[in-house]
Specification:
Blueprint: H1 2-95, H2 113-136, H3 146-163, H4 184-192, E1 195-196, E2 199-200, H5 203-208, H6 210-224, H7 235-253, H8 262-272, H9 278-287, H10 293-301
Antiparallel strand pairs: 1-2
């Protein structure tokens, strides 16, 4: 009996220890469970809210990018055709610069096919850019896809190459006189004249309305009137820089038949001479951080030296 009692006491002690351990485990587990439930109770709404905000932001970016792509797609074909026509005219002018077909001595009301088509194609191109930009006005273009953002950057560069006097940095050019550049804030007024009911008027209508349009676009005629290689002015240099960007634009976004090969770029160089303001052009390109700026510099500018 003594042995049994002793054994019983031993087992009782073991059971007591096991009970204490179990209770401790249960308490610890319960405390952890309660702590987890409290944590989930407080954190879940915050996590859900952050995830919801994240979803909204991603949906917003996606919708903005989609709308931007749709707008650019709506005008892209017409814009590329306009760029091609202008590029074709600039190539033709390069070959026939010595013919002085742009010289009309201020007689802008009379129809002169060569300068009329030059002015029309020039303004037509910028008018299409305006149609795109006007439709993008209320969208957040920072959410554009890479290729669309690249095109938007080109839009800004085109305007700068025509209006920015920094292109002639280091020269004696008078920035207060609109002779070899076009004032940026006034430039938009000139190509807006070609837009009627959100469409670009045809060349035939442009000719028919030229008398009334001259009042608004005369500075563009003056910019091209008599342009030649031997004059002591910089407007041809500005046009050559613009042509470089236009070639790059068509090479990047255009159809394969709109591409200008290196050999043709070099021919243009021989026809019109090297770029006198290459450094100014490179500054403008760098300013807008074009992803293809290295290719643009190597293919177009460096081979136009």
């Amino acid at each position: 009996m003594v042995v049994i009692e002793i054994a019983g006491v031993s087992w009782m002690k073991k059971l007591e220890k096991m009970s204490d351990s179990l209770i401790t485990t249960l308490i610890a587990g319960g405390t952890g469970l309660i702590s987890s439930l409290i944590t989930i109770y407080w954190l879940k709404p915050k996590i859900d809210r952050k995830f919801h905000i994240f979803q909204l932001e991603e949906n917003y970016k996606h919708e903005q990018a989609k709308k931007i792509k749709e707008i650019i797609g709506q005008y892209k074909s017409q814009l590329l055709n306009s760029a091609e026509h202008l590029h074709s005219r600039l190539k033709n002018y390069s070959k026939n610069c010595s013919e002085n077909w742009l010289e009309v001595n201020g007689d802008y009301h009379t129809n002169h096919y060569y300068i009329d088509t030059m002015v029309y194609r020039f303004l037509n191109f910028f008018a299409y850019i305006k149609l795109v930009e006007d439709n993008l006005e209320y969208l957040d273009t920072t959410n554009s896809e890479n290729d669309d953002m690249e095109m938007i950057r080109y839009f800004r560069i085109f305007a700068d190459v025509i209006s920015d006097v920094d292109l002639f940095k280091g020269s004696d050019y008078d920035a207060n006189n609109q002779s070899d550049h076009i004032f940026r804030n006034r430039f938009e007024q000139y190509y807006e004249c070609l837009i009627q009911e959100k469409k670009i008027i045809s060349f035939n209508l442009f000719e028919d309305r030229k008398d009334e349009l001259i009042e608004y676009i005369q500075p563009i005629y003056m910019f091209f009137d008599g342009m030649n290689k031997t004059e002591p002015r910089y407007r041809l240099e500005r046009l050559k820089c613009f042509h470089c960007i236009l070639i790059s634009f068509l090479n990047h976004f255009g159809y394969d038949f709109q591409e200008t090969k290196l050999t043709k770029v070099q021919k243009l160089k021989k026809l019109l001479g090297p770029l006198k303001f290459e450094s100014g052009l490179k500054i403008i390109i760098k300013k807008y951080k074009l992803k293809g700026s290295k290719q643009l510099t190597e293919l177009v500018i460096d081979n136009y030296k």
